[in-house]
Each structure stands twice: as structure tokens, then as C-alpha cells.
Amino acid sequence: MFRNQYDTDVTTWSPTGRLFQVEYAMEAVKQGSAAIGLRSRSHVVLACVNKAQSELSSHQRKIFKVDDHIGVAIAGLTADGRVLSRYMRSESINHSFTYESPLPVGRLVVRLADKAQVCTQRSWKRPYGVGLLVGGLDESGAHLYYNCPSGNYFEYQAFAIGSRSQAAKTYLERRFESFQESSREDLIKDAIMAIRETLQGETLKSSICTVSVLGVDEPFHFLDQETIQKVIDTFEKVPEEEEDAGEGEAEPEAAPGAAGTGEQGGSGDQDVAPMEM
Amino acid sequence: REETSDRERGRGAIGVSEKMTFTIPIENGNGVKNAEADSQRTLYPYVTGTSVVAIKYKDGILMASDMGGSYGSTLRYKNIERMKAIGKHSLLGASGEISDFQEILRYLDELMLNDNMWDDGNSLGPKEVHNYLTRVMYNRRNKFNPLWNTLVLGGVKNGEKYLGMVSMIGVSFEDNHVATGFGNHLARPILRDEWREDLSFEEGVKLLEKCMRVLLYRDRSAINKLQIAKMTEEGVTVSEPYSLKTFWDFKAFTNPTVGAEGSW
């Protein structure tokens, strides 16, 4: 009930010990379109839903290559995401230049988190409104991290962020125990199936999603439309029937999702604010 | 800007700090105007170490150097260790200015400390250390304030052997056998003929001793007190100092001017 009094400044605590501006920034992440990451012992797959402003425009880029061995998928304010990707590329290339060796992804993620934390403790700044799924390889194997606007970071076997990500998370929770030993192909298939969960009935086509892979002996790269369509074809043999099943699962998620947008006010109904993707 | 990048953390190494600003000397015909400028940069070395020789062998790296520190033509210091272990995976040997070598050891100490503090299963191996040193040496050279050393960096990590060299002007490369200073002229030819991929430890030591003996005979800044360091997957061991047997009763040494009276 005190929310409105203590949410003007990022440097103002609420009586219950919360920084509301930071929490609002995390809401921005939930408004963006879904991004999913999964990892096995040797590979990391990042996938996202392609969202376009209108039928006339091309879709927003949400997955960026940071280096041959690191990729990042974003959800939230894509402009903030682009700036942070540039920072990550810069850190990675500087490390490569000095040490002629790839920057361990765990160390990059800590620097990113420290950078985000600064914005939660300066009155003239605002937190970054973007969540980052950072996937990468280092000496100790494949890793997937999630970086929050709050400056926290967590390591995951699999994770989903953005709107309707709960459906994808439910799917991933059922299957994550098998991911560590998964083959590369199975991992990609699982990623695309998780994407399907967030679509809530829309037809799953290769044009609607972007998938990227990186692994031991496989530098970061995007999968082309053909490859993705082939994977889709293996489990979407009868599109109509699959859709019904998908819709049933996704239904309970729709209600809380709408409630979330209603509370935000500014975003209004189904329309997403122009700067968010 | 609040970001800390590796570049900024290594600032001390490249020489950016309040005291070490480098002022350009101004010449006006009567000598250099701002004399402090000159006293701040390295013009010539004072206490120097002579050659370091290193080879790859079956299990890793072998490196040899003597323990002398010359002060010009005086063999002044006889207990200087010119080879040091860097972290778990690397071994650094240096010839040239000893104080600059000690400075480099301080930079590497800081580097390895920060690397260990991450405690995340990743560690800087010999290739990374070699590259870091190349950057440091080259950057100092560009400021006309070199670290007056030639460095030999060897190591083993995850079964891979690495041996490289960096000079004071930032020239850097890797090879199966490297040497500094006089070693380039006297030891490398021997190594080019006799080095093999699968030398055993004993064979490697014998080969290095052969090189060091030639250097002892012919390099006047060499002393007969040397150490041999071994670097394998298990770690680094630097031997106790010992001397080589030398033979001075060659006829040519007993009467060197027999063929040319009056010469020396």
C-alpha cells in the first residue's frame, strides 16, 4: 500500500526493504517476448520468438553473438539489451587481445551483474530494463546464466524469460533432468518445443523463431530456417491436433499474464509499448 | 566510468599512475631542458642476467640459467634466481635488468592473485601469461620506457606443452627451444642439431648442460653456478644450484699465442 510513495527514486527504500524501481525494471523483462536457454554438458541452445512491430517491419534481433564461445538472448527493452551486448563483446575481445584466450563466461557474467548493480545505487541512473540469458563455454564446460536488472545472476540448466515464459518453464521443468546428457539434436528439439509452449496456439513455423547453438568444437551460430523447419516437422506432423493440445496447456497461463499487463497501466491491453520487445 | 575491465585492472603494469607520467624531453641545443623526464625512463640496464636456455621435452619444459647478476663488467651478484614459477602452470625465466624482472614478477603476482580469487575452475595458463607479458612489454616499448628484459615463458596445461619468448621490444613467438642473449648464438645451433620431440628428462638435462657449458666457456658474463628448472603437469621444480665440470687444459688454452707471437 506504500508502493506509490517509495517508487519514485531507485535510491529510495520502501519500509518493507524493497527497491521498487528495480522491481519495475524486472516487470519490463516480463513484457518482452519470450527467450529460452538450455544447456547440456557440451552445448548451449538459445531460442526466441520473433516479434515484429507490424506486418510491414522485420522482426527484432534478440539473440546476439558475443564471441565464438558466448551468445546472449535478451528480453525486455531491446535498446538496453543492445548496449549490454556491446559491453559484453568489448570485454570479451579485450580479454582475447590481452590473453589470446577466450573469456570464461562465468567471469563475464559477474562483470555484467556488477554493471547492472551500479544502476541500482545511483540516483541519476535507472536500472537496465532487460533480462539476459547468457550461454557460453569455458574450461569447466557449458554454462547458462540469467542476468537480472537487479544485478543478480543465476546459473541454470534451462530457463525461459519474457511473456508467457511460464508455459515454457513448465515444459522445461518436466524435462530438465535429461538435458545434461542430451545430444545436440535433442537439445535443439527441446528448445523449439519450449518455444511452442509460449506461442499458445499460434502455428509453430520456422519463421516465427530464431535458434542459436554453441558447443565444444562448434562456435556460436544461428540455425537457418530450413534446419529449424526440419526439426519442427519431426514433431508437428499434424499441426491442428498438436495446436489443440498446446492451447489446453497454455490456457491457465493466459489469465495471470493479462492481469500482469493490466496492473502496469502504461502498457495497456495486448499492445506492447514501442520500445519493448 | 564505473566498469572495471581487465585492461584497467592491469593499469599498473602498463605504467599509468600519478607518479609515473612520462614527460617528453625538450632539446634546445644546450642539452635536454627538462632533465627529470630523462631520469624517469629506462635508458640502459645496470644489474643484468645473462642467457636463459629452455627446451620442450617428453614430459614438459626444461629451463636453465646461471645465478649471476653482472654490474657492467663486474660479476657482482652470484646468487640471483632468474627463473620463477608463475601459478601452477607456468615458469618464467629472464635475462637483462634484474630489477625489471622483479617488477614483472610483481605484475604477475597480482595477475595470478586475481585469477585465483575468482575460484571458478578457470585458470590462466602459459599461453595467457605469455600473451599478457607480450602486451606489457610492447606497451612499455611504445612509451620509450622498456622493461629491459628478454623473457622465456614455459608451461604445461592439460597435457599441452608451451614454450615462448618475449623480448624487450615486444617481439614474441613460440618454439620448441628458445634462448636469450648469447644463448641465441651459442646454444640454439646446438639445439637445432640435437633437439628431438621425445627427449627424456636425463637426455634433456644433458643437452641443456652441453649448451650451458659452451656459454660458460665463451660468455664472459656467465658464472659457473647454475640451476635447472623442470615444468610438468604435476608442477614446477627448480633445482638446487650446482656447477658444471670444465676442462681448461686444452692446448690452445695453455699456450694461446703459439701460432701468433705477440698477440693475445
Automatic annotation (TrEMBL), chain A:
Residues 239-252 have a biased composition (Acidic residues). It is found in: Cytoplasm; Nucleus. Residues 259-268 have a biased composition (Gly residues). The keyword Plastid does not apply. The keyword Coiled coil does not apply. Pfam families: Proteasome, Proteasome_A_N. One of its GO terms (biological process) is ubiquitin-dependent protein catabolic process. Its main location: cytoplasm. InterPro entries: Ntn_hydrolases_N (IPR029055), Proteasome_alpha (IPR050115), Proteasome_alpha-type (IPR023332), Proteasome_alpha1 (IPR035144), Proteasome_asu_N (IPR000426), Proteasome_sua/b (IPR001353). Residues 237-277 are annotated as: Disordered. SUPFAM superfamilies: N-terminal nucleophile aminohydrolases (Ntn hydrolases). Residues 6-28 form the Proteasome alpha-type subunits domain. GO terms for cellular component: cytoplasm; nucleus; proteasome core complex, alpha-subunit complex. It comes from the Eukaryota. Keywords: Cytoplasm, Nucleus, Proteasome. Belongs to the peptidase T1A family. The proteasome is a multicatalytic proteinase complex which is characterized by its ability to cleave peptides with Arg, Phe, Tyr, Leu, and Glu adjacent to the leaving group at neutral or slightly basic pH. Component of the 20S core complex of the 26S proteasome. The 26S proteasome is composed of a core protease (CP), known as the 20S proteasome, capped at one or both ends by the 19S regulatory particle (RP/PA700). The 20S proteasome core is composed of 28 subunits that are arranged in four stacked rings, resulting in a barrel-shaped structure. The two end rings are each formed by seven alpha subunits, and the two central rings are each formed by seven beta subunits. The catalytic chamber with the active sites is on the inside of the barrel. This is Proteasome subunit alpha type. It comes from Capsella rubella.
UniProtKB/TrEMBL annotation, chain B:
The keyword Cytoplasm applies. One of its GO terms (cellular component) is proteasome core complex. Keywords: Cytoplasm, Nucleus, Proteasome. Signal peptide: none annotated. Transmembrane segments: none annotated. The keyword Nucleus applies. It comes from the Eukaryota. InterPro entries: Ntn_hydrolases_N, Proteasome_alpha, Proteasome_beta4, Proteasome_bsu_CS, Proteasome_sua/b, Proteasome_suB-type. PROSITE patterns: PROTEASOME_BETA_1, PROTEASOME_BETA_2. It is found in: Nucleus. One of its GO terms (biological process) is proteolysis involved in protein catabolic process. SUPFAM superfamilies: N-terminal nucleophile aminohydrolases (Ntn hydrolases) (SSF56235). It holds the Pfam family Proteasome. CDD domains: proteasome_beta_type_4. Component of the 20S core complex of the 26S proteasome. The 26S proteasome is composed of a core protease (CP), known as the 20S proteasome, capped at one or both ends by the 19S regulatory particle (RP/PA700). The 20S proteasome core is composed of 28 subunits that are arranged in four stacked rings, resulting in a barrel-shaped structure. The two end rings are each formed by seven alpha subunits, and the two central rings are each formed by seven beta subunits. The catalytic chamber with the active sites is on the inside of the barrel. PANTHER family: PROTEASOME SUBUNIT ALPHA/BETA (PTHR11599). This is Proteasome subunit beta. The lineage of its organism: Eukaryota, Viridiplantae, Streptophyta, Embryophyta, Tracheophyta.
